[in-house]
Design a protein that fits this description.
The complex is a heterodimer of chains A (111) and B (117). Chain A has strands at residues 4-6, 9-13, 18-23, 30-36, 43-48, 54-57, 60-65, 70-75, 84-91, 99-101, 105-110. With 111 residues, chain A is mostly beta strands. In chain A, strands 2, 4, 5, 9, 10 and 11 form a six-stranded mixed β-sheet that branches. In chain A, strands 1-3-8-7-6 form a five-stranded antiparallel β-sheet, with no helix packed on it. The radius of gyration of chain A is 13 Å and the shape is globular. Chain B is mostly beta strands. Chain B has strands at 4-7, 10-13, 19-25, 32-38, 45-51, 57-58, 67-73, 76-81, 90-97, 107-108, 112-116. In chain B, the strands form two sheets. In chain B, strands 2, 4, 5, 6, 9, 10 and 11 form a seven-stranded mixed β-sheet that branches. In chain B, a hairpin with a 2-residue loop joins strand 7 and strand 8 (76-81). Chain B starts with a strand and ends with a strand. Classes of the chains: A mainly beta (111), B mainly beta (117).
Chain lengths: 111, 117
């Protein structure tokens, strides 16, 4: 079952912050975050493996609440280069450890 | 880091012909390869999963006789779209996972834009 991402889309001005959420109805083994720009393949951002784990990647960080089966991606002081569609992918034992993608969150950064 | 080379990046073919898409892992052994298709403004849709040396496992609704997947070596997987029709036009992307299994990331190819005319 596909994880639910919210919001579907967000428009920001450069320098503003954003949070993208990803929730699943299944017990999760890991959560993956990717960014895809138009016409290109997705680019790996980070993977979170443990409950309560947090990771950072420049000004992009994420948390994973295993109990709530949720993950959030935080983008701080957004830059124009952050524009794109962000996908979370979840892996669970119930899905035979396949990566199941969310529908994506489109992020538009305006100068 | 892990790199997957996918080609061609774009292909235009006539209806009824077949098209082969290749994905090569350049610096690691891809024990599992995933093939996706993506329609405009939509998420990635998993078509099939293949493990090296084994037959691919297709997702429900994906015709295995139409989308032939070969994963004969740990560095090469191919997807052949047979008797392509305009409705097969899409963005096809491969993704490889190494022996690290689901604890690690998935490396994507650069994608193939297929247009069937």
């Amino acid at each position: 079952q596909q994880p639910v991402q919210s919001p579907q889309a967000v428009i920001l001005r450069e320098g503003e912050d954003a949070v993208i959420n990803c929730s699943s109805s299944k017990a999760l083994y890991s959560v993956h975050w990717y960014r895809q720009k138009h016409g290109e393949a997705p680019v790996f951002l980070m993977i979170l493996l443990k409950g309560g784990e947090q990771k950072g990647h420049e000004k992009i960080s994420a948390s994973f609440n295993e109990k709530k089966q949720q993950s959030s991606l935080y983008l701080t002081a957004s830059q124009l280069s952050y524009s794109g569609t962000y996908f979370c992918g979840t892996v669970s034992g119930e899905s035979n450890y396949q990566l199941i993608w969310g529908a994506g969150t489109k992020l538009i950064i305006k100068p | 880091g892990a790199v997957v080379s996918q080609h061609p990046s774009r292909v235009i073919c006539k209806s009824g012909t077949s098209v082969k898409i290749e994905c090569r892992s350049l610096d690691f052994q891809a024990t599992t390869m995933f093939w996706y298709r993506q329609f405009p403004k939509q998420s990635l849709m998993l078509m099939a999963t293949s493990n090296e040396g084994s037959k691919a496992t297709y997702e429900q609704g994906v015709e295995k006789d139409k989308f032939l997947i070969n994963h004969a070596s740990l560095t090469l997987s191919t997807l052949t779209v047979t008797s392509a029709h305009p409705e097969d036009s899409s963005f096809y992307i491969c993704s490889a996972r190494g022996a690290w299994g689901p604890r690690g990331g998935y490396t994507f190819g650069s994608g193939t834009r297929l247009t069937v005319v």
